[in-house]
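Dear colleagues,

For the upcoming journal club I promised to circulate an example of a predicted protein-ligand complex. I picked one with fe (ii) ion because it came up in last month's discussion. The inputs are reproduced below in full, followed by the predicted structure.
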Amino acid sequence: MAFEIVTVPCLSDNYAFLVRSDRTDETALVDVPEAGPVLAALDARGWRLTEVWLTHHHADHVQGLDAVRERWPEIAVTGAAADARRLPPLDRAVGDGDRFDFAGAAVQVLDVSGHTVGHVAYHLPAAHAVFTADSLMALGCGRLFEGTPPMMWESLQKIAGLPADTIVYSGHEYTAANARFALTIEPDNAALVARARAVEAARAAGRPTVPSSLAEELATNPFLRAGLPEVKTAISMAEAADAEVFAEIRARKDAF
Ligand SMILES: [Fe+2]
């Protein structure tokens, strides 16, 4: 079973993703920042959109849905049951630990609340892919608009526990700014220094820095690394609990 995943840049810095099964000719769309680029990407490949997986209620992740549905009226929409009141009408309401079938493969739902309460991520093990939107991001994590630091820390732990070869498809091109911040936390992390250089080069060439691998996030993302002794020591919090260190790093990023 083979899946092809296409990154679709939308708006100024959002990403949507198309997940296509070549076995069943079904295509899922992860988030709908706007319709135009998504429809164009489908048309360019002759793909048939069959479903939409929504990660959270923010407008820049759902607002293109009605326009997409005008072209593909039969699409089934999946989203968090816990946040159904703020999401577009759902055909499939899911929660943490749920599994559903896509083209004969399992999709596993993770509640990754923090940025919003009710944010979900979709893990497709058959494609080594997790769609994290504004929870875990490339070299960063989403701002905590609704949840608490311990909530987001717990959410990030769920993603960190996925296989290290998992590819992380996150929702925004914020990586260059995230890299500059990450270097203030771990200036001596050689993997981070190298990645920051690669990110600068990619952006200078107009290339996206999303997706990234979970392995590189574990090696370089300060928000995932808040539980490590070297990170705690680097910010003079050697004795603090993991979630407290995460909260401090998140607070510093908010003020960066
Ligand atoms: Fe968001």
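Two points we might discuss: The first strand starts at residue 3 and ends at 10. The pocket of fe (ii) ion is lined by residues 56, 58, 115, 134 (CB under 6 Å).

See you all on Thursday,
B. R.
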